[in-house]
């Protein structure tokens, strides 16, 4: 039996382990986090029918997903810096992209795996084509190593010299808790799904989570990738004041999402791999998700593609007698799909923060709906 090692226990790595398990193939996942809840797992995801949802069907977990998915999360509001509304869309019927919190989705995947499949608190310090080395000095041999270890993958250098580069956009993440009870005005302004407040080179993006929070991403175009880390410091009040000064030309409802939050501010400079990133076939090694095709979030495909990558790789390994044939088949399909999504993401990152972007998005959505 081939020994399959998966480096990284995010959504992609866990989905691969589950699809392999469903098809009678064992694997082991090595994950740096001490547990599935060791840190904040991030916000909410819209899972698409042909990518993330398809992966969950292949994993035999679609019903569990549907039990927790929020169809109302598809609602979208787009406003400009003055608060003028250009899109206010609440679908009458589910549109095929329901939302689910990352933490809930991760829990579904973890609970579906046999005990011992994920080795938590395992720091991978070195990777060779047929083995990994852990922080405690243990060496683990493998017939196949899959890098599902995100933006700064330790597996990627076996295949490619590419490294993520700063995109020119930075987020500061914050949130408001128990919004319906404590912040009803903000809850009404954001709505039941997502709200995008877009200005020239800046934006305030908010999304409802299933735990009663609104998660807010304050977006700033700047070519200095270290600037946002210096803006956010150990004093939340000082960070909040700096952000409010930067957004002094934004309408009060948008500024309020910054002013009234919980006092947690996390700098998140956005990085991406080159559009079209690929590699020549290297025996016994491959990548999926952000390790393979890191992109900005402005195509809405990151987690969806990671899960689809995982499902297709698992199915390819089940369908082929030898690993190399499976990897060749998997990569041939993954490369062009990832390139198209990355190109869209890079284009949208620029377009969303140009003057008049909210109005243009409103016009485009009106044309698409035939209005």
Automatic annotation (TrEMBL):
FAD binds at residues 46, 102, 290. This is Flavin-dependent monooxygenase. It comes from Kutzneria chonburiensis. It is found in: Cytoplasm. An FAD-requiring monooxygenase active on some tetracycline antibiotic derivatives, which leads to their inactivation. Hydroxylates carbon 11a of tetracycline and some analogs. Residues 3-227, 284-342 form the FAD-binding domain. It catalyses: a tetracycline + NADPH + O2 + H(+) = an 11a-hydroxytetracycline + NADP(+) + H2O. Keywords: Cytoplasm, FAD, Flavoprotein, Monooxygenase, NADP, Nucleotide-binding, Oxidoreductase.
């Amino acid at each position: 039996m081939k020994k399959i090692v998966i480096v990284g226990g995010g959504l992609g790595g866990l989905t691969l382990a589950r699809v392999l398990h469903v098809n009678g193939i064992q694997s082991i996942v090595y994950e740096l986090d001490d547990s599935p809840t060791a840190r904040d797992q991030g916000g909410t995801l819209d899972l698409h029918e042909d990518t993330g949802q398809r992966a969950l069907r292949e994993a035999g977990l679609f019903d569990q997903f549907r039990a927790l998915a929020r169809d109302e999360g598809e609602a979208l509001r787009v406003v400009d810096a003055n608060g003028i509304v250009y899109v206010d869309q609440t679908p009458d019927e589910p549109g095929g992209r329901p939302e689910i919190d990352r933490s809930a989705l991760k829990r579904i995947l973890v609970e579906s795996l046999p005990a011992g499949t994920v080795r938590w608190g395992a720091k991978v310090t070195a990777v060779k084509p047929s083995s990994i080395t852990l922080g405690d000095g243990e060496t683990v041999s493998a017939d196949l190593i899959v890098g599902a270890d995100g933006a700064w993958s330790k597996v990627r250098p076996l295949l490619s010299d590419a490294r993520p580069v700063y995109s020119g956009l930075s987020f500061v993440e914050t949130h408001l808790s128990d919004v319906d009870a404590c912040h009803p005005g903000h809850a009404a302004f954001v709505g039941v799904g997502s709200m995008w407040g877009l200005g020239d080179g800046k934006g305030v993006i908010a999304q409802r989570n299933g735990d009663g929070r609104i998660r807010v991403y304050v977006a700033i175009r700047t070519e200095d990738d270290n600037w946002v880390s210096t803006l956010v410091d150990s004093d939340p009040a000082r960070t909040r004041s700096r952000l409010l000064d930067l957004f002094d030309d934004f309408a009060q409802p948008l500024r309020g999402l910054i002013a009234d939050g919980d006092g947690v501010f996390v700098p998140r400079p956005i990085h991406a791999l080159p559009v079209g990133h690929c590699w020549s076939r290297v025996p016994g090694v491959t990548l999926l998700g952000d390790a393979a095709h890191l992109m900005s979030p402005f195509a809405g495909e990151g987690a969806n593609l990671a899960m689809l990558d995982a499902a297709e790789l698992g199915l390819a390994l089940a369908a082929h007698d030898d690993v190399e044939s499976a990897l060749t088949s998997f990569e041939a399909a993954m490369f062009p799909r990832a390139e198209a999504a990355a190109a869209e993401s890079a284009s949208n990152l620029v377009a969303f923060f140009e003057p008049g972007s909210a109005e243009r998005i409103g016009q485009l959505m009106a044309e698409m709906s035939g209005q």
